[in-house]
Amino acid sequence: MSETLERWGSKRAFILAVTGAAVGLGNIWRFPYVAGENGGAAFLLIYVAFVLLLGIPVMMAEILIGRAGRRGPMQALSRLAVEAGASRHWRWLGLFGAFTVFCILSFYSVVSGWSIEFLVASINGNFDGASAAEIGAGFEAFLANPGLLIFNHSLFLFMTMTVVAAGVAKGLERLNNLLMPLLYGLLLLLAGYATTTDGFGTALSWLFLPSFGDVTTSVVLHAMGHAFFTLAVGACALMAYGAYMPDEQSLPKAAFAVAMLDISVALLAGIAIFSVVFAQGMDPADGPGLMFVTLPIAFSELPWGAFWLSVFFLLLLLATWTSAINLAEPMVATLQGLGWRRSVSTAVVALSVWLLGLLSAFSFSTLADFRPLFGRNVFELVSSIPPDIFLPMGGLLIAIFAAWVMPRTQVVQALGVGERGYVLWRNIVRWVSIPLTFIVLLGGLL
């Protein structure tokens, strides 16, 4: 990447871009079923606490590295390490982050392709009057159809990479400015609809009145891990965005704003989803199938259900689209840093992600019995190991580099909070965030 980088056109553009990277499947697909499996309100409260103690400080560490280096992740880490008198091998952390995003985006594109299929099906009224058995069987038949999965995977990836190819200002910034407000508008519309259902009060109680007797070590570890996954921390994606950050922007304010927007999406999605689930007397702990089986069943029995289900899957598609676009950018930036043109970098990333995604798509049919590690198929491996192990490992190394390796003056300037603010951030990262991140990593390994 050259010395002269594109910059976000405004402070708002940077916040929307980072929020776009963070908001996606983690908020609308993963949060509801993880919260459902871990007791609701108690999980939510612990998750919010870890966003504040773990997510925001490490997010700031990742962004400030990019801001101080003003290059792609590998180049920024190499330059800053040399200036600090540390090993140039820190640059490989940037490559590790790119590999992490590569793995995540490959399964992300496949699952996002499901939202395209279900959006079309809901608009066509395919779920109207269908029984629970029919909807469940339809989902199983869809997963067993590799041609359909590959088509939707390819379509979603094409939508994503055409935006990335256009660049920061013309591609990412323009689409974020358009789609992020639309996403929040749809989410508020769905939450407003949730207030009219019989399950609204039950959903509020389940989400906001914690029973700490339900808290186990597993619940705490899931909450810590989800704080990492949902904020897109640990993959050097935010490092790439920090390189484009306006000089006058306050990093702590921006990080806090992103975290609050991210949490609000999860909360609004939870209210909308669980109001419908409880209105139909269904189980909130239905796992990953909650989105694609439980919700179509629940909506099919409600007035105007097909319309609201269509709105929901449109919301899911927009969230995953903005997230995928903003996750793909760091990989392209890494290749640009090696001297490649953006168009070539984008094409290489697109083809590589598409090919790995094929293995995930085939995991439900042709490769269903291919279980190369821990008895898991490829989809199960790439949808669990990168989020559960690679992200906290990357986050741990990023936090160590920012809080222990980088010179004090460099960090103070990149943070932009003065000496006292720097000392507070450094102490939180060194003595709270790093130990907690290590625990998250151990939880993923075990």
From TrEMBL:
<dbReference type="GO" id="GO:0015293">
    <property type="term" value="F:symporter activity"/>
</dbReference>
<dbReference type="InterPro" id="IPR000175">
    <property type="entry name" value="Na/ntran_symport"/>
</dbReference>
<feature type="transmembrane region" description="Helical">
    <location>
        <begin position="389"/>
        <end position="407"/>
    </location>
</feature>
<feature type="transmembrane region" description="Helical">
    <location>
        <begin position="302"/>
        <end position="327"/>
    </location>
</feature>
<keyword id="KW-0812">Transmembrane</keyword>
<dbReference type="GO" id="GO:0016020">
    <property type="term" value="C:membrane"/>
</dbReference>
<feature type="transmembrane region" description="Helical">
    <location>
        <begin position="181"/>
        <end position="208"/>
    </location>
</feature>
<dbReference type="Pfam" id="PF00209">
    <property type="entry name" value="SNF"/>
</dbReference>
<feature type="transmembrane region" description="Helical">
    <location>
        <begin position="256"/>
        <end position="282"/>
    </location>
</feature>
<feature type="transmembrane region" description="Helical">
    <location>
        <begin position="92"/>
        <end position="111"/>
    </location>
</feature>
<feature type="transmembrane region" description="Helical">
    <location>
        <begin position="220"/>
        <end position="244"/>
    </location>
</feature>
<dbReference type="InterPro" id="IPR047218">
    <property type="entry name" value="YocR/YhdH-like"/>
</dbReference>
<feature type="transmembrane region" description="Helical">
    <location>
        <begin position="428"/>
        <end position="445"/>
    </location>
</feature>
<keyword id="KW-0472">Membrane</keyword>
<feature type="transmembrane region" description="Helical">
    <location>
        <begin position="149"/>
        <end position="169"/>
    </location>
</feature>
<feature type="transmembrane region" description="Helical">
    <location>
        <begin position="12"/>
        <end position="29"/>
    </location>
</feature>
<dbReference type="InterPro" id="IPR037272">
    <property type="entry name" value="SNS_sf"/>
</dbReference>
<keyword id="KW-0769">Symport</keyword>
<protein>
    <recommendedName>
        <fullName>Transporter</fullName>
    </recommendedName>
</protein>
<comment type="similarity">
    <text>Belongs to the sodium:neurotransmitter symporter (SNF) (TC 2.A.22) family.</text>
</comment>
<keyword id="KW-1133">Transmembrane helix</keyword>
<keyword id="KW-0813">Transport</keyword>
<feature type="transmembrane region" description="Helical">
    <location>
        <begin position="41"/>
        <end position="65"/>
    </location>
</feature>
<feature type="transmembrane region" description="Helical">
    <location>
        <begin position="348"/>
        <end position="369"/>
    </location>
</feature>
